[in-house]
Amino acid sequence: MGDGAPPEGWEAPRERWLSTVVRPAFGPRSVLLEVATRLLIPTILVFSVFLLVSGHDQPGGGFAGGLVASLAYVLRYVAGGRRELAAGMPMRPEALLALGLLVACATAVAPLLFGASVLEAASVTVTLPVFGKVKFASFLLFETGVFLIVVGLVLSVVSALGARMEAEEEEVRIVRARTTRFGRMRGGPR
């Protein structure tokens, strides 16, 4: 201890800032990345909902909002790996895709039940106590379906790619653990 060297593991964070981080997907744990992820994810998700809601008359919509929400989950994956991503997902990516497709298709076809054409928009204005007059439009439901499809697709791609990358990394770790410093395999034929 008197040689001036820092104690073993001194740089490792003592507290976990994300729910399941034991070993992140890439490289050593970074407390700065974990804290930044924990602080940024709620902000990113609120911004994605803003893009979703304001997209009918301004730039944005379901696609842009879905991409921004997906960014939050990709950041969570980079900070904590596949387990952290799975812990933060509301449901499986395939279920999000299916739900989004169901909502978008139902919203597109629903006007036919009322004698209107496919994808025809309807709106209703209500007065809410705090917000005043608020206009709800049917295309917001369609955009929500698109939002869910985009998030589900990005999450399924990240999960699939992440699983393969982590499996390859585990194989390399096993080979390194079995290889001696002279290049021979331990426990193998001599």
TrEMBL record:
Topological relation to the membrane, as annotated: Multi-pass membrane protein
Q: Where is the Na+/H+ antiporter MnhB subunit-related protein domain?
A: 33-155
Q: Which UniProt keywords apply?
A: Cell membrane, Membrane, Transmembrane, Transmembrane helix
Recorded superkingdom: Bacteria
Offer a single GO CC term for the protein.
plasma membrane
Q: Which one Pfam family would you cite for this protein? A: MnhB
Transmembrane residue ranges: 31-53, 59-75, 96-119, 139-163
InterPro entries hit by this protein: CPA3_antiporter_subunitB, MnhB
Location in or out of the cell: Cell membrane
Tell me which family the UniProt entry assigns to this protein: Belongs to the CPA3 antiporters (TC 2.A.63) subunit B family.
Q: What is this protein called?
A: Na+/H+ antiporter MnhB subunit-related protein domain-containing protein
Identify the species of origin: Halostreptopolyspora alba
